[in-house]
Design goal:
Helix content: 25-40%
Largest sheet: 8 strands, mixed
Number of strands: 12
Strand content: 15-25%
Distance between the termini: 34 Å
Radius of gyration: 18 Å
Number of helices: 9
Strand order of the largest sheet: 5-4-3-2-1-10-11-12
Structural class: alpha/beta
CATH topology of the largest domain: Rossmann fold
Length: 253
């Protein structure tokens, strides 16, 4: 059992009540946090009951979605209109667009990637080019070990300023120093004029948000693999986010 306190225990519930008195920024990852993980990523959607709760929350506080997906990809999967969406792990803003330096820096890797794409596809890996980042998925690979070997071959020699980050059956290709989810939540808190905040996420790319959050923030790691997380609280499974949203709505302003 993890030593990290569960958000729905007494301590976590009290933290939510304190937070909601301050009109906080409410930040959420998409896949695995608001939406259940599915075998086919294109089928991911927020359940209707969760979308309705989020819609009600937007009347009380800024609700932001910070996703590894592109903004256009995630927007139609939400079922409600959030205050703000940030995509590409923090490098693409809904209103300001993707960071142009990041898009340009990835060009050298794109050329290398296209040369090796047939080999990746044969191993069961697929490429998703999101402009400001690239994801190489192998969730549907018949032989995940073979797919990982093919991806390792692709990323063995990376162009300058390019780095990788491993997630759940995906390898993300990113530009070193690109805005991440930690930068995103800081930028959004300043934009919406709040010092208090909440952020929940389930994967490696959410850790910068946990790390950069101010001490008073409520940060939550969803699901397993908690040993090295810098979040302050945990949820054991994605479905528990519904109860968290209900607690936020029931908390006195």
């Amino acid at each position: 059992m993890s030593a990290m306190p569960h958000l729905l225990d007494a301590e976590g519930r009290a933290a939510i009540e304190r937070l909601m008195r301050q009109r906080p920024l409410l930040g959420f990852d998409f896949d695995g946090t608001l939406a259940p993980i599915v075998m086919h990523p294109d089928e991911a959607r927020i359940p209707d009951r969760i979308a309705r709760l989020l819609e009600r929350l937007t009347a009380r506080a800024p609700v932001v979605v910070v996703s590894g997906r592109q903004v256009l990809d995630v927007r139609h999967r939400l079922g409600f209109k959030p205050t703000h969406i940030v995509g590409n792990h923090g490098a693409e803003d809904e209103f300001d667009g993707p960071d142009p330096r990041v898009v340009t820096t990835l060009e050298a890797f794109r050329r290398q990637m296209l040369r090796m794409e047939p080999m990746l596809n044969e191993a069961g890996a697929t490429i998703e080019d999101k402009g400001a980042s690239i994801a190489i998925h192998y969730r549907l690979a018949p032989n995940p070990a073979l797919a990982r070997e093919a991806i390792a071959e692709l990323v063995r020699e990376l162009p300058p300023d390019i780095e990788t980050e491993h997630g759940k059956r995906v390898v993300n290709v990113l530009v070193a120093g690109a805005p991440d989810k930690g930068h995103a939540i800081q930028r959004l808190a300043a934009r919406y004029g709040t010092e208090a905040g909440f952020y929940a996420g389930d994967d490696t790319n959410d850790e910068p948000a946990f790390d950069r959050a101010d001490p008073g923030w409520v940060t939550v790691r969803v699901g397993p693999r908690l040993e090295h997380s810098r979040a302050r609280y945990r949820l054991d499974e994605q479905a528990e986010i519904e109860e968290v949203l209900r607690l936020m709505l029931e908390s006195p302003a």
